[in-house]
TrEMBL record:
Name of the featured protein: DNA-binding LytR/AlgR family response regulator
Signal peptide stretch: none
GO terms assigned for molecular function: phosphorelay response regulator activity; transcription cis-regulatory region binding
The UniProt record lists the keyword rRNA-binding: no
4-aspartylphosphate found at: 50
InterPro entries in the record: CheY-like_superfamily, Sig_transdc_resp-reg_receiver, WalR-like
Originating organism: Rhizobium leguminosarum
Family annotation (SUPFAM superfamilies): CheY-like (SSF52172)
NCBIfam families: PRK13435.1-1 (NF009970)
Amino acid sequence: MKVMIVEDENIIALELERIAQEAGHQTVGPLSTVEQALAYAPRSDVALVDLSLSDGLSGAQLARRLIDRFGVDVIFVTGSPENVGNGIEGALDVISKPFTDERIVSALSRAEARRKDFDSKAAV
C-alpha cells in the first residue's frame, strides 16, 4: 500500500515513514503543504495527515479533498485531536501525538483491510 506522509515536523515525518516502511508499505513524501500533498495524491492509497502543516491549520481541508477527489483514505496524526471534533466524514482514524509504532501500524492495517474489502466488492 502507498502511504503518503503529510507532516511539517521533519523528525515526526521521518518516524512515520520508518514505521510505515517497516510494516511493509511504500511511502510517498514526507510532504509538508497542501499543494505538495495534492500533487502526490494520485499516487497514494492512504495518507497520514497532521492538522497543522507548513501552510497553516490546513490538514482538515486537505483531508476532505484527498477523500472526495482522490479516494485516499485519511488517518489524522495530530497533537490536537480535539480539533478534529467528532471526526471528518470519511477519515478512518485520529491518532494522538505522541504515538506508538503499534498504533500507527494498527491504523494502516485497518486501512489496508478496508481497501482490499472495497476492491473485492468492486470486482464483483
